[in-house]
Amino acid sequence: MSDSIAIYVARYRPGQDEAPTEQRYDVPLSTDLSVLEALNYIKDELDPTLAYRWSCRMAICGSCGVMIDGEPRLGCKTFLREFADRGELHLRALDNFPVERDLIADVERFMDHLETVKPWTVHNSERPVSEGEYRQTPAELERYQQFSQCINCGLCYAACPQFGRDDSFLGPAALTLALRYNLDSRDDGSAGRMAALNADEGVWRCTFVGYCSEVCPKDVDPAQAVNRGKVASTINYGLNLLRLARGEHDT
Amino acid sequence: MKRSNEPVAWGLFGAGGMLLALVGPGLVVATGFLLPFAEPAAAFHAVDALIAHPLGKLLLLAAIALPLYHTVHRLHHGLQELHAPLPHGLVALLCYGSATVLTIASASWLLVR
Ligand code: SF4
Ligand code: FES
């Protein structure tokens, strides 16, 4: 193992630079150094102008996602030793989003989509605190737990060709969160989320490419969630036809 | 947001895929490998009896129509995925339209038989 590694970072300042250009930084190699720590090293020792996002350093906050050798990954969960043999790696901001600066992607669109699906427990009537907590059995927790592990890192959006093509698609994580709350026994908000799921921009834009599940750092399996959303939406479609046949309102 | 009609196409696609997985191999073996070795008259009567029965008709129609919808759905989305420079409304019409025409043709034939 050589004692340093070449990290090529796509630098970009919108409005000033025409296009992103790669800049090379040589970083001392050690087996336990993460890509995020390498960026911190560059910022502290080599180039204070480098812009990137991070916070927790432990795959919880979801802010350090970047394209590492063309793959969407978390900087804090990816280690330099993986690239030691090749002696180099390439970083750029997450695909499918506008670049704010250097490695910082503008994920506003993703945040909007999250909000669309109302990712919080909705109650039809608020219960007084004196009645105690909302209880749930382990089996009820089990139904949605996997989908609640999402850290909103956006890697699945960088992986999704449909979102890349048309960012009106609500996308993997937002649709997964919709399912997560729909499956929660404490939640009364399913009906309110179905309109978003039922739309072309909802589950139906997905063609089950599945790359989102491959890149997800938390094993959420958004592709599975979206497909279960398709089943739910198909049932909803059938029920709506029945309602229409009975002369009731289209929903 | 507007409700999509994709559940119809996806429902038929899913049903077709399921049916193909279940009876596809059996159909290939029966019609491709076993039938040619069967005694022609006996084979004819067996198939004829199947077609004569309403349940047989239904089964055959399902075995023809659902895989058709499955196939055109794949084709339609595959072309889109490959960024084929085609008018997708027209492609959809041709795909699902041809499956529907063939389904109606099979259904009518089965009905008059
Ligand atoms: S589903 Fe996975 S990849 Fe997508 S935002 Fe959540 S944690 Fe990240
Ligand atoms: S720094 Fe928080 S997820 Fe990587």
From TrEMBL, chain A:
Binds 1 [4Fe-4S] cluster. Pathway: Carbohydrate metabolism; tricarboxylic acid cycle; fumarate from succinate (bacterial route): step 1/1. Residues 140-162 form the 4Fe-4S ferredoxin-type domain. Keywords: 2Fe-2S, 3Fe-4S, 4Fe-4S, Iron, Iron-sulfur, Metal-binding, Oxidoreductase, Tricarboxylic acid cycle. GO terms for molecular function: 2 iron, 2 sulfur cluster binding; 3 iron, 4 sulfur cluster binding; 4 iron, 4 sulfur cluster binding; electron transfer activity; metal ion binding; succinate dehydrogenase (quinone) activity. The keyword Metal-binding applies. Its EC number is 1.3.5.1. Its cofactor is [4Fe-4S] cluster; [3Fe-4S] cluster; [2Fe-2S] cluster. PANTHER family: SUCCINATE DEHYDROGENASE [UBIQUINONE] IRON-SULFUR SUBUNIT, MITOCHONDRIAL, SUCCINATE DEHYDROGENASE IRON-SULFUR PROTEIN. Belongs to the succinate dehydrogenase/fumarate reductase iron-sulfur protein family. This is Succinate dehydrogenase iron-sulfur subunit.
UniProtKB/TrEMBL annotation, chain B:
Keywords: Cell membrane, Membrane, Transmembrane, Transmembrane helix. The chain crosses the membrane at residues 12-38, 50-69, 90-112. Pfam families: Fumarate_red_D (PF02313). GO terms for biological process: fumarate metabolic process. GO terms for cellular component: membrane. It comes from the Bacteria. NCBIfam families: PRK05470.1-1. This is Fumarate reductase subunit D.
